[in-house]
Amino acid sequence: MLNRVRSAVAHLVSSGGAPPPRPKSPDLSNAPSAQPAVPPEASKSPPVRAGSGSSAPAKTVEARTSFSRPTFLQLSPGGLRRADDHAGRAVQSPPNTGRRLPWSTGYAEVINAGKSRHNEDQACCEVVYVEGRRSISGVPREPSQGQGLCFYYWGLFDGHAGGGAAEMASRLLHRHIREQLKDLVEILQDPSPPPLCLPSTPGAPGSSDPSHLVGPQSCWSSQKEVTHESLVVGAIENAFQFMDEQMARERHGHQVEGGCCALVVVYLLGKVYVANAGDSRAIIVRNGEVIPMSREFTPETERQRLQLLGFLKPELLGGEFTHLEFPRRIQPKELGQRMLYRDQNMTGWAYKKIELEDLRFPLVCGEGKKARVMATIGVTRGLGDHNLKVCSSTLPIKPFLSCFPEVRVYDLTQYEHCPDDVLVLGTDGLWDVTSDCEVAATVDRVLSAYEPNDPSRYTALAQALVLGARGTPRDRGWRLPNNKLGSGDDISVFVIPLGGPGSYS
Amino acid sequence: MLNRVRSAVAHLVSSGGAPPPRPKSPDLSNAPSAQPAVPPEASKSPPVRAGSGSSAPAKTVEARTSFSRPTFLQLSPGGLRRADDHAGRAVQSPPNTGRRLPWSTGYAEVINAGKSRHNEDQACCEVVYVEGRRSISGVPREPSQGQGLCFYYWGLFDGHAGGGAAEMASRLLHRHIREQLKDLVEILQDPSPPPLCLPSTPGAPGSSDPSHLVGPQSCWSSQKEVTHESLVVGAIENAFQFMDEQMARERHGHQVEGGCCALVVVYLLGKVYVANAGDSRAIIVRNGEVIPMSREFTPETERQRLQLLGFLKPELLGGEFTHLEFPRRIQPKELGQRMLYRDQNMTGWAYKKIELEDLRFPLVCGEGKKARVMATIGVTRGLGDHNLKVCSSTLPIKPFLSCFPEVRVYDLTQYEHCPDDVLVLGTDGLWDVTSDCEVAATVDRVLSAYEPNDPSRYTALAQALVLGARGTPRDRGWRLPNNKLGSGDDISVFVIPLGGPGSYS
């Protein structure tokens, strides 16, 4: 997330402000987990203070509690220092010696070239067990492993304006998903269509009688069919919302600074759910072909949603912004002339006479990576950002940001996958300088150099992708082989093999 | 538009209320047109009163001024009566003897099987000349044909709850498009990028100086590139809005009853612009393959837009509706239980505890052709409907309807078309019973039976499509060869050949 928030990043870097302490969740911090999100040793690690900018690693060490890298990297204090070195930009991956990630997932990351003090990307990879909250038949069940559900989970979180939100999301979002799935444990394992209505309390009289639950139809002639798949989608969507609400609640006490894009994969009962809120990206490379599994949410792609909101709720614009889009800033002396504009309902452009309120700054402006909402932020979905204000103003930006992901579903059982078929997740540091097709070419090149049953091939691939996007230091910058600039952003990549889920783990 | 508005249609049919007199447009009624939208003889035609339902043609004749069919059908009074006969449902096409439609366009229509008194579809096909309003250089131009622009225009308007809106749109929408294009005549013919800013008045000092017009950049580092194509899209979008506003202004004086879907094609400078607001559909059949050129706007496809509006502006729900979606109506006795729901941000479903306000009727309910907004209307975009209220209520529905079309652009110059390549426009009467592929098969079957240079083949194709959707009377209904019910709706079809624009006209 390079240069995507104008004010806060600069502030954080220049003031040397430490990222916030680790937030606690009253809802979820005590919830059991198959694998602790933060192992005890992480908080015991000697805190380090990394160098900022592209200077040599800093030598000072001060008390810090929350800066961390994903626990599966198993970084020693020295390793943590090296991972935090903007000058060397060493690529980090889980050690070959330790426990492999589920499905032999490959992972690699590299810190930015100095745009923020620490790597603001975070990652999480877990196997999560969901115990049913109760029986839908109304009879309380014995808590036993056999009746629960497992899901596999991968998350990439690209932070901006501080690392707090990304760190919190990487620790807690999968727990929110687990919470949402608790009600569905029995329903998802029952092949019959989900009940439309559930009893309020287990064992309530009559409430488990299906004929009562369905009830007579009023003026609707039929009831909608709701699929199991759409229940999982709804659970993931609501988990994102609860995660965001938790950040809002705890932002004062725990200083959940900044916000983050979130790209999450859930594998459950044969299906892969890819949920994206932000500008990270997921693609499947299958038999050499690219299948997009997400789209990016930016001021350009969400222009009409943003403008509609500004149009319907002009108070959110605070008299400082106009919901109309113009192709460039209007000069006061142009008042009365006619300028091209787009309103919230338009995809084309037309001319309008410039009036006084058109001189306000447009809610959405700029193009490509420079596009901004309220001249401030370059992504329009994600978690956090509850404190984000317009530069030199008290106007909050959060109302224009959405925490809801778009969820795409891929049925793993519909296609026989080979070991070279992979799902690649990357933060925008990867995609800013690498096209989908280039990733597919790297998949082919790297995987064909390894035996199909060598589980280390996916980490090698993730490393190759990160290195290919970072480049090498040359001519006062990080450069790609074609001499173009590499990505100076944090870069994080998961490579999830689709060819044999579970067979490597 | 069969059964898509619950209350008003029934009222109109049962009360025998006459459609409104022809509305006048203060803005546009005096504007010159290459071909008068309504030839003088139309208003002189002996008015007829057609039979309603599936009974024999009515014999009574009463004074009516506005019921009409497209002028290019050149219907005699007797022909008009036959076109209005619900029992015979004779397919209507332009006569072979008269002037052909531009591009040898094929057209056919048939009245409904009795669901409304008259055929509420309307159609328009015109060649429209646009004279530039002024020179962008600031020097007033001589009005001369050579400096203007021509566009070809086809429109299908599927009325509901009365024929007034469809009739008005068929007479005036292309004039609104012409009005919007007047400013663009010079710009569109100039290969350089459109100016971002125009002088307020022709010849104003300094206003034609491009360096002044562009001006220095403020905090935006670059200005957006706006294409000629996007100006035409913007012109069409705004024309729809002005048409809708004119209907709002004139609805009291001229009784512009009901509303209509609008599907419009503009051919201008090598490109085909397909603008759709409603549930009509356009497809291109090229080399036997189907290219969708529109999508339908219904309570199902626009659920999230509608829910968002109800969520942001709850006053529009009048305390009668909830913006949440439920898979069926909730019973009062289910209060406190947990029901599946979808909120405006969700594509999946989740359970929520039923509260008192969830007992309100959902803003969006039903499925497929039975989906409704506020239990009333089954399309969510179109023109008119300014008087439409929720059944037995004063709550207006118009705020939830959008008059803005989605515009898709097809570049005719990018592909060498053969005489069998066509653009097919149809109201939902066609598409309710005919798939895209079936249309493509009919295109192949009918056109191959005619010489490629026989201009009557496109009308034969339009007739075949309409007949195929209507079926034949059998077993107390109109039935297709497979014995399924044919469409009892009004059916209208344009077939526009792409293989030789202008070569037949």
UniProtKB/TrEMBL annotation, chains A, B:
Pfam families assigned: PP2C
Gene Ontology MF, one: [pyruvate dehydrogenase (acetyl-transferring)]-phosphatase activity
Region (Disordered): 1-104, 196-215
A GO CC term attached to the entry: mitochondrion
InterPro entries: PP2C, PPM-type-like_dom_sf, PPM-type_phosphatase-like_dom
Residue ranges annotated for the PPM-type phosphatase domain, each copy included: 104-498
Stretches with biased composition (Polar residues): 52-74
Cross-referenced SUPFAM superfamilies: PP2C-like (SSF81606)
PANTHER family, per the entry: PROTEIN PHOSPHATASE 1J (PTHR13832:SF305), PROTEIN PHOSPHATASE 2C (PTHR13832)
Protein's name in the database: Protein phosphatase, Mg2+/Mn2+ dependent 1J
